[in-house]
Every structure is written in C-alpha cells, then in structure tokens.
Amino acid sequence: MLLQRFLIRLLTMAITLFGVAVVVFVVIRVAPGDPIAMMLPPGATDTDIARLRALYGLDKTIVEQFFIWLSGVVRGDFGTSISLRQDVLGLVFNRLPATLELAIVALLMALAIGGTTAILGARERGTAVEAGIDIASGAALSIPDFLWGLVLILLFGVLVPIFDISGRVSPQLDLPFVTQFYLFESIARLRFDLTKDLLGHMLMPAVALALPLAAIISQLLKQSLKEVLDLDYVVLARVKGFSETQVILREALKNAALPTLTLVGVQFTFLIGGTVIVERLFSYEGLGNMAIDAVINRDLPLIQGIVLVFALLFVLINLTVDMMYALLNPRLRHG
Amino acid sequence: MNASCLNIANLSAVLPNGARVLRSVSLSVQPGEVRALVGESGAGKTMIGKAVLGVLPPSVRIVEGDMLLEGEDLGRLQPKARRTLIGARTALIPQDPLTALNPSRRIGPQMTDRLVRILGWSGQGADARIRQLLDEVQIRDPDRVLKCYPHELSGGMRQRVLIAAAFAAEPRLIVADEPTTALDVTVQKQILRLIAQLQREHGTAILFVTHDLGVVAKISQKVSVLYAGKVVEEAETAALFAAPQHPYTRALMAATPRYTDPFASLKPVDDAVLAGLAAEIAAADQAWRRPHG
Ligand SMILES: Nc1ncnc2c1ncn2[C@@H]1O[C@H](COP(=O)(O)OP(=O)(O)OP(=O)(O)O)[C@@H](O)[C@H]1O
Ligand SMILES: [Mg+2]
To answer: B89 in contact with A at a CB cutoff of 8 Å?
Structure first.
C-alpha cells in the first residue's frame, strides 16, 4: 500500500515538473524583454544581434528550443547563463545550499515558536494566556514575510542596530568550508565562532520568514489539540494521574499534529517562495536573490534552471510530507 | 471514623447559564461494594463519575458539596495532590472502548504507563502485572495484544484490555461508566460477567453507571436512582426490586425490556409520574435557591 502510494506520487511528480518546465519556458519567451539586446552595447548591428541569437539558439522556434533544452536537461546539462556566462547547474548548486539553510532554520523556528505557543495555549485554554496567544498569532499572520523583513530591518538594522542585516557571513572572515552548506559545515567542524556569525546574519531573514508560518502552526495545532483534549483516551489519561502538560505531550500531540503536518508541508513551500524577496531585502546570497537578477537580466537559461530546481524542491517536500503522514498514522501503515 | 470508600454529600454542579446539572447529590460506596447509579440518558450519571475522578468539563462548576475518597476530602486537596490520589486509588472503565484507547500508541505502554510513571513501578514489574491481569480477563495471547495498536483489536477485546488496566493497580474504587453499552449484545454479557468476577476476586468497590435495570440486578448490592441530576431513590438492590418506593423507579421498572418482549422498552414513562417529578425538581431547586440565590 505504501509502495503503491509512493509510485503514484513519483509519477505525479514527473508530470508536475514537466508541466512547470513547459509553462516557464513559454512564459519567459513570450514576456517582453530581449536578453540579447541587453547584452550588447547600444548601436550593435543587426548582424551582431542575429549572430548572438543563433549562438544561444534563440533563432529557432519555441518548440525546437524547448526540445533542445529538454534533451540537455535529461543529460544534466541546463545550458549556460547568458548574463554570467557560466554553467547554469553549477550556479544553481552553488547558491541552493544558502537558501536551503535559510529555509530550514526558518522552518525550525516556526515549528518551535508555533508548537510551543500551541501547547501553551491548549494547556491554558479559556484563559487570558490563550487570548494573548490568539492576538499575537493573528498579528503575525496578517503581515506577510517581506513586510516583516522591512519591519525587522527598521527595528534592528536602523533604529537599534544590533543585528547584521546584510549578507550571509561577515566578509573579513576566513572560511574553511568545502561545501556551500556553511552553517551545517561550521557545526560539523565545531567552528562555533563561524556558526555564530552565520546565524547572526540569518536571524532576521529567518524570523521574517518564520513568523507567518509560526502563526499558522500555532493556530491550527492549538485547535486540533483542543479537540483531541476532549476525547475519551485523554480523559482516561487524566484519571490515571497525568498532569495536563503530560497529557498534551504524551497523548494528544502526536494525533493532533497529523492534520497540522500536511499544512506545514504546503506552507513550507510558500516559505521557500518567500525567500526570493526576503533574500533580496537582506542581500542574502541565495538562490532567490540570484533568481531576481536572472529575471532582471532576462537570463532565460538561468531562470529556467532556477525555477525547475524550486519546483523539484516543492514536489520533494510534498512527497516527504505524504510519506511522513503515512508513517505516523498506524492505520495507514498497516493498510 | 467513617469507613466509606467514597462518600459524596450534597454535591451540586451548575452550567455557565446557572442551570443545575447535579442537584444536591448524596451517595456513598462502601469498600468492596458495587453501587449502581441508574437513570435515563442525560440524568447526570456520567457527570457524577467525572466529578469523583476530577475530570469534569471546564464548563461544569461544582458549587456545593463534599467528596471524600477513603476519608480524604478531594475538594480540599491541591490539584496535583488530588490528581495523584485519584490516579493511585481509582480507575475508570469507560463507556466506549473504541475511543478510550489512544489510536497512535501500542496497547502495552497504554496499560503500563500508570503503574510505571505515576506509581513508580519498574518496567518489568508492570509488564508482569499487566500479563497477569490479561490472563484474568481471558486474553490468551498477551504478546500479540500488547504489541497491537487499538484498531487491530475488536471492541470486546479492547474493553477487556481496559478492564485489565483498570484493575492492574488494585484501585480502591472503580468508576464503570456504562461499560457494556457500546458492545454487541453477546459480548455485553461476557464483559459484565468478567467485571463482576474481577470485582469479587479483587474486592474492589465499583460505582457502576448504567441505564439498564437488568444490569443493576445482576451486578450491584446498592442502587441510587437518578433523575435530572437528583437522587430520587436509594436502596439495597434486592429491596428496590422487591418494593420500589418512588413512582419514577416503578415507571423505570415497567419500562425495562424483558427478553420475551423486546417492545416493552418502548413503553413511555407515565405523564402523571413526569409531572410529579417536575414538581419535585422545581421544589428542590426553589429550596436550594433560597440560600444560594
Ligand atoms: N460538556 C458539557 N457541558 C455542558 N453540559 C453538559 C456537558 N456534558 C453533558 N452536559 C449536560 O449535563 C447533563 C448530564 O449529562 P450526563 O452525560 O452526565 O448524562 P448521563 O446520565 O451520563 O446520560 P447518558 O446515559 O446519555 O450517558 C445533560 O443534560 C447534558 O446535556
Ligand atoms: Mg453518560
């Protein structure tokens, strides 16, 4: 049953990715703006332009271009960036780890904040504590991540400048890293001085990304916890002598978390989407920041590569959530 | 010193709108005795059980009365002390075995957690104890059952598991809230017999909630009849069946199904009886409101 579920998901994934590839490919070619014109100095002759178009394969029809590109992609060749004149795949893999680290730190923050407030709110249900948590999560939710970014920049970058609000790491530092996963590698190498610097840079953008998701997790998890806390097996646990906190953690949390889990998966993909603008705001050198440059420069191969990698990330996240859901739910696991 | 296992005196509870759900309830359960609590749906039987076990819904507030568990005044204890006392001396056999087990935890830890985490037994000791109890409730393959998730067991099996868990810590008092209502008719009899047998062997006092006078006759020594949160009659079980005093009790008996006549249960309670009950309740509320209003 689990295997069948997995195979169906795999097929859907392939179809989704193909669809995304087609749409992006067509849209960025139909949209106004000519990459070649942007590369050449003003006054370039028509023959210069035609030569360059032919060089990048832009003289062929969209359908021809697509299949040339696709046959490259299946061989692992995503083409060459027009603006940076480097291999697209190399560029993407160079930047992806920075974005992944940011997104994962933001997700962990959202889970920690959302989870704690949900548990606290459920334990103190009906009191002023719960009301306070509701108000806070309502506020966090009604402001989107990039506005949180601006608020944080104004607060902690300008008004009380206590945090770094620009870049990924202090430029004067010597970096011993062999991978682009700076944060994870700094921890693995026990270079906590670097970890601290990296986290310091990451904190503000991560908080901006985390707050709306934390609010959603808090509200949804608290609601399902409160529903579960009225169920018979929870009452039975109270009769056994367990405290309300123990009851929530031992009996209620796992069952209440299942509906939240699916939503977190979807919301996490939104969070990754949010990195595009938030990275820009904080000049964080990730994939999202590079995506904006690619769009500004009409760098068609780079845009295609980045979008495809983002799409792959999204379907992988959804797949993971689906599998986790099945694993956590004994009824599904045993068929 | 009063030797009652459970003594409830003048217990009243209200809803947020001020309506009383329990009307000055008094009842006691002596050590080792089965006290049946009988009444129709909505009479407040479950409320009384939950009040004793300290798990009333937050909307229900106790406004008056005392509950003594083996002489300890539950109302005077700090929440934590009360919880621990209730956990150590009481147990609950719930109405619906389908919802009373956590669907995402295996049976084993659900049965041993009170012993280990509240009462401080060793894991091995608890495991041995639980196996002994599973044997007493005639579960012959404890290894399999302990590893199961609840949905892998039938309703009757789950209720056996819950009964075994309830008796495992040798509680002084068990609240059994309609423990057979949710089961198949054939299984009902087995489960009832099982509870009666374990009760006798362990000498546990039981507050046995039911709406079925047939069950009352089989299992209990004493009985309290509840109507609209008020105890309208209390007697030794044999005496009650021999000579019911209250018109409502008589009406209930007339309405109890006989095996030969399945439609007997459809006989409604007499209008005159209901009118008398309404007047009785109104008078009780008036008397109660004077000092409390
Ligand atoms: N959570 C609650 N909040 C407010 N009122 C409630 C709540 N639960 C039950 N009641 C009310 O309290 C009264 C007593 O309910 P209770 O569940 O004790 O009845 P019962 O005798 O156990 O009936 P049944 O045989 O249906 O289980 C009913 O009038 C019911 O509507
Ligand atoms: Mg009930």
So the answer is: no
CB within 8 Å of chain B, chain A residues 270-329: 328-329
Residues in chain B with CB shorter than 8 Å from the CB of A329 are 104
CA of B41 relative to ligand 1 center, distance in Å: 8
pLDDT tens digits, residue range A11-31? 988 999 999 999 999 888 888
Interface A:B, Cβ pairs < 8 A: 75
Ligand number nearest CA of B22 is: 1
What fold does the segment set A88-334 form as a domain?
MetI-like fold (1.10.3720)
Domains of chain B are 6-100+172-292 (3.40.50.300)
Q: Which of A1-10, B50-59, B258-267 has the lowest mean pLDDT?
A: B258-267
Distance separating alpha carbons of residues B292 and A320, to the nearest angstrom: 60
User: Of A224, A232, A255, A329, which to mutate for an interface test with B (greatest number of B Cβ within 10 Å)?
Assistant: A232
CA A41 to chain CA centroid, Å, is 37
Rounded Cα distance between A148 and A207, Å, is 8
Q: Residue B55 in 3-state DSSP?
A: coil
pTM for this one?
0.85
Q: What CA–CA distance (Å, rounded) separates A218 from B291?
A: 45
Residues with Cβ within 8 Å of B231's Cβ and at least 6 positions away in sequence, in order, are: B25, B26, B27, B224, B225
Ligand 1, pocket residues at CB < 6 Å: B 15, 21, 39, 41-47, 57, 59-60, 211
**Is A250 close to B83, i.e. CB distance below 8 A?**
no
Tell me the per-residue pLDDT of A75-106, one tens digit each, with 9 for 90 and over. Answer: 989 999 988 989 999 999 999 999 999 999 99
| CB-CB neighbours of A130 under 10 Å | 18
In this predicted structure, the answer to whether residue B275 has a pLDDT above a threshold of 90 is: no
List where CATH 1.10.3720.10 sits in chain A. 88-334
Mean pLDDT along residues A261-271: 89
Q: pLDDT at position B284, please?
A: 84
Chain A residue at shortest CA distance from B110: A237
